[in-house]
Specification:
The protein is mostly helical. Helix content is 68%, strand content 0%. The chain is built from seven helices and no strands. Helix 1 runs antiparallel to helix 7, helix 3 runs parallel beside helix 7 and helix 4 packs antiparallel against helix 5.
Amino acid sequence: MWDGGAVDASRAPEPVTVVDNTRVGITVLCAFGVAWTLILIPLSALSTPLAVVATGIAVLWAGVLWAVARGRDFAQADAAVGSELSAAQRRRVFVITNLAQAVIFSVAISICIATGRIGWVPLIAALVVGLHFLPLARVFAESIFGVAGLVLAVLGGTGLVLALMGAVTVEVAVAITAVAAAITLLTAATVLLARYGTREAMPAQPPAVS
């Protein structure tokens, strides 16, 4: 549930409009949920037919969520934020957290490429992305972010440890992590849609009389 804003009705003659960033968030979660299944084909231990089936299921799930979200209204999502921080402060934390995630992930990818361990990238990605969700869960007071973050971090961290110990191959670790990560992200999107997407659009408020 990311911050949105409203046009100041006292200054604009048009009806109040709200940027449905929760809908955008659902779309992003769906996109990355599908992306996790796409890495199954080149980097995991799953056979190509199974990887294609997993991707197809993810695409269908994400497509249904996206289609339903288009017809829902999320105007009340921001009002439901229980954080004491202002909208501007929440946006600042969101930007800083994602910039930190991008920097850490870029460094990790560079190290993997330099050491010839490109197959480790999905495991590191799960760990970094999971950790990035944790501050967002606190800032937005959204429990599903915390749950998703913990699951992803545990998946990535456990996969890395087991692969380093030789308990499983990197390909097996990636297969498990990718499937579970896709399910986690698509479930998070489903929860957000069910929690904040109302079936009928809220009526536009008339301009305020000054």
